Amino acid sequence: MSKSNSKLFNKKDLFAYFLIAGTGAVVQLVSGGLIKDWFKVSYEESILPAYYISLVVGFILTKLFAFNARQSQQTRREMIKFLMVASFSGFVTWFFSVIPYRGLNIIMHDFYWQIPYSVKKINLTQVLTTINGMGFSFVSNYVLHKSFTFKSSGFYDRFKDLIR
């Protein structure tokens, strides 16, 4: 492994992961809005399902384009580790989205933006607090995926032995 690939925050991996996370963030924001509208659930209830929808997109793109994991031949173990990390980061996203949103609602009302030529109003307060949660999740995901999910650590083999 080259020196640039061994560093946790090397520019190439960080840039690739940022683009992938950005794609996942768009998927999460759009699916969260659709889940709220279609299923008539609250903001808080829409965050985790939207996160897990974006998780599928994120795994595929991360496997193909980030951390040099395309040819690893360890997709099953990476999927299990990815799901573990993503579940933790899903909680991070939810916590850093919902808690600030609730705090802001104590001191002010939500801000809305109406899409031109549409009846759809977007709750900007919810969008911004979701982006806040995504930012915290981005950091935890990047560090854990780089140092755990797409790195052979022996954890998967120990876990497999434990459940047998």
TrEMBL record:
A Pfam family matched in the record: GtrA_DPMS_TM
Membrane-spanning segments: 14-35, 47-67, 79-104, 124-144
Membrane topology category: Multi-pass membrane protein
Domain GtrA/DPMS transmembrane as annotated: residue spans: 17-104
InterPro entries documented for this protein: GtrA_DPMS_TM
Keywords: Membrane, Transmembrane, Transmembrane helix
Subcellular location: Membrane
Record protein name field: GtrA family protein
Organism: Aquirufa ecclesiirivi
